[in-house]
Amino acid sequence: MANCLICDTTYSPFIDFGEMPIANAFATKEEIKNEYTFPMKVGFCENCNMVQLVEQPDREQMFHENYAFFSSTSSYMQDHFKKFANSVSELQGLNKNSFVVEVGCNDGIMLQNFMSNNIPCLGIEPSENVAKVSMTKGIEVITEFFDQTLAENILELHQKADAILSANVMCHIPYIHSIYSGVKILLKEDGVFIFEDPYLGEIIEKTSFDQIYDEHVFLFSALSVNSLANMHDLELINVEPQITHGGSMRYTLAHKGIKIVSKNVLKLIDKEKKLELDQEQSYLGFTDNVNKIRDDLINLLNELKNDGKKVVAYGATSKSTTVNNYFKITPDLVECIYDTTPIKQNKFSPGAHIPVLPYEQFRESNPDYVLLFAWNHATEIMKKEKDFMDKNRHWITYIPNVKIS
Length: 405
Ligand code: JHZ
Ligand code: SAH
What we know:
It contains twelve helices and 20 strands. By secondary structure, it is α/β, with parallel strands linked by helices. The radius of gyration is 21 Å and the shape is globular.
């Protein structure tokens, strides 16, 4: 039994992944001797509808000066955040007198667009190495964790915000009540708080279990975000599905009673109730679905190994840490992972210790099969590798089920 991080109700986990390492702790040979692990289990709170990790490592173990995820590694995501920023500017009529705050700005992939339109902005980013990249783009960044106290400090130096934005960050924060309290005091009367995160409905429908790892403490739905917003006198006023990260949802919140609530909100809440995302029993088959993918993938990898085929992987994602460790994929099944991120290269993947090599060596490795860990970027990556992946070379994907193409 565990207590809900949102409403303190007790609940039981519905899936147990066993011991898991830090998803982004790519390690040297020395470092793998002292790898940290934690028991990774996920549960559903029937009272407030939040799906959540039972335990999460301390935030400093995940977000620090050697954080391995740099947002701008995908050109599709660069375009996505440009459109996101433009849509906020239009919605709020932003100009040189406005103020935008982004929580978890990483390398500046979103705020660079406000900078180039002369809209004043501030990034909050505790991971110093990625924050530095933002700063080199001229963005003002506070290298601390956002919470209520920081919101109060920001208000001593700045005006209230017309828009508080965040992408793939809110679902990382167990002390979410302090975030919402901070938003409540930092947001102008007619301001908006807009954030997006992987969407629970998609994760259940596609069995995209690999969205579950240390950083993702919450899997949000309109139901759970609505109930959290109400606890802070905020109102969920819009929901917009996104195709990013395998299926995300963008939530717009405002002070209660100030803005018109879109019909989309009630529609999505109704849909979630029809799908029974508000009932514990809906989550009970999830483990069986994950284990079916595991058995199919492990059987395929063993077959390929016995046939003497060369199998490598593409994209040392955070998600792949769950896949490799829960499925027990070892370097004799997948020789190495190619990735474009320098800080991950020439290190070992967390827990499974598969070598991560520079992307530049991918083609010369001459693989027969390529396991696509960055499946959420499939369109971008498959287009980029189209000339190389000829009829003798195949992609392997595993969400929603194992497929060779
Ligand atoms: P990607 C991270 O998840 C962590 P990850 C975090 N918790 C989160 O929520 C999302 O991001 C936002 C590489 N790559 O985006 C770069 C190539 O090599 O799926 C990355 O290492 N070639 C904050 O880690 C990885 O793949 C390419 O052409 O699961 C992609 O990681 C492309 C496009 C990517 O996020
Ligand atoms: N928004 C980017 C980055 C997501 S990575 C994108 O969508 O690609 C998640 C980021 O959240 C990390 O850079 C991490 O350092 C940051 N983060 C974690 N906790 C935070 C907090 N309390 N306040 C601000 N940023 C935080």
